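Mods, move this if it's the wrong board.
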Amino acid sequence: MGRLGLPAPQPGEPRALTKGCQRVRLWHKRLMLNIFSLIIGGITLILALLAFIPLLGWANWLIIPCALVGLALGQLSDGRAGRNLCLIVVLIGIARLWLGGGVI
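Not the wrong board. Structure tokens:
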């Protein structure tokens, strides 16, 4: 018998995770999704600002889908910062495409 009266795991047998440990792992995964969303949002925001240069408006056709991926990751996380940043980038990209007629 192991600690707390539970049967001791056999050699090579994985230990069962406690509920507290499972919650920490789930929280960690959701935190990482928010961080990934923030990274994607930051990179696409810089690229979207560069796409405001005349004749680079076509780059928004590539930036918007990348920001949508970040938006999806941000939606899966517990935090709101990454989701909101990617949403702002998507709106900036759509506005720029609308002002440039979709190409310029």
